[in-house]
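Worked Example 4.2. Consider the chain below.
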Amino acid sequence: MEAQSLFSLSSSVSSTRIIYTPSPFARSSLIHLQETGTLQALHPHKSERSGLNSCLFFTVLSGSGELVYDGKRYELRTGDCVFIDCRKVYSHETGHVNTDNSGTNNVNSLWSLQWCHFYGPNMNAIYRKYQERGGRPVFQTEQLNNYRTILTELYQIAESADYVRDMRIHEKLSSLLILLMEDAWCGEKASNNTPSTVDIQQVKEYLDLNYAQIITLDDLASRFFINKYYLLKLFKERYGVTINAYLNQVRVTYVKQQLRFTDKTVECLAIELGMEPNYLSRLFKKVEGVSPSEYRKKWRGN
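Applying the procedure from the previous section yields the following structure tokens:
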């Protein structure tokens, strides 16, 4: 794995960046870094790219500019954050002239940016999940200092001689993705502070406590005073699974605990959960890939 620090790559910007080459293991198995750094624009400039197997995150430290991504145009200001899939066509520029509604020409103040390009074997699915949760290409955040800290630490790790730096980079990029997922939810949904949004956490807590009971969608809708179809939509957006799938996950987790630490039979557990034993066995194997008896044997031996 190699990291190369580069300075002032063009006359348009002054930059400090690391172009990073991850190990083959990191490239195939981890979220890995491709490039990170900071830049200050010295003159108006524009970058256009497409078809990169990369995701780009950057924040505007100062100044202003413009992003064109996925057919839309975004005006960027100090404090804005950008998270995009670089397989799509995109461009960003600063110092360009735009015309406001009154016909006045305005010139963007030259920006400074802090950024990283990164990728991983599951990044396409992760970016789709970000979008499903309401994540936008451009957003404002209350966690700006946390983003900037992560980017600074990424640079420090990448230029270090740490023999496990690919793992540390993976950890730091995972922290970045967690922040992005939090903002995807909070920025689009929770900031509205509607009763329906608040109820979703209450629904989950109710399922966590009452998974052994027979629970229907109509019962939940009545209990939490919400349209059942809207409830389905909100729960899926918030937790990434349907209510039924989540309930099955909780029930399977309970069965796993009992199989490992008690001598209860599948028949007994099925009665506790209000299920037919055969159905519980099929559900368990679908989720875990092995039957309940095989799972118990693996964890408890003979």
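Confidence is low (pLDDT under 50) at residues 4-9, 187-198. The radius of gyration is 25 Å. Compare this with Example 4.1 before moving on.
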